[in-house]
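agent> Task received from the user: take the single chain below, predict its 3D structure, and emit structure tokens. No templates, no multimer pairing.
agent> Plan: (1) validate residues, (2) run structure prediction, (3) serialize to tokens, (4) report one or two observations.
agent> Step 1 OK, no nonstandard residues flagged.
tool_call: predict_structure(input=
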Amino acid sequence: MSGGHLQLFESATSTFTYVLFERPGGAAVIIDPVDTAAERDLAELRRLSLTLTHVLETHVHADHVTSAALLRSLTGATIVVPSRAGVAGADREVSDGDDIRFGDGPPIRVFATPGHTDASVSYLWNGRVFTGDTLFIEGCGRTDFQSGDAGALYDSVTQKLFSLPDDTLVLPAHDYNGRHASTIGHERRNNARLAGRSREDFIALMNGLGLPMPKLIDLAVPANRRLGAQA
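)
tool_result: status=success, residues=231
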């Protein structure tokens, strides 16, 4: 597995941010940055002498505000968002099968993985898949707001993500139990919500969760549609 990544954890919202890089001193990409952790992320870039070229969002987050606009203003990085996400001011919108190139290494491949939201994507790079809120470690994102669709999420995971090689590293946007990574093979066999479950059973399960709304949803969603920029 060539290239490297950093996994950075924001404890207030249990959010993972990822920095991808070919080598210290080279180009870098950041995935799902959080506004309250911007200084931490910039410090990591400086520590490894990395040049930030892209900021990638997996979806419009409802539980935290992105630092995408801030990072672009400080570094000149290109902001990449899923097409149809309703985000204003991004530099590029990506769809299923698109490639994102940075540095001289292999590109990042975009997988459209709707379900948690109707415009969620996952990013595949160097044997790692960054799944946002689509696929968690032995779980998955909820589907009861922001045009979520349990059937679409089931299809995204079982038909797209589970078609990847077993040893593909799964790196989600959140974990609430102190875990850091999984593999496609492990999730195909052991995911508590998806493994061995029919599409109809999965839809019934997801529609019956009865979870409270995220605390920051009324703030986060409109802010993230502006890339975290002040209104």
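agent> Step 4: summary for the user.
Helices lie at 38-47, 68-75, 150-160, 184-190, 199-207, 217-224.
agent> Done.
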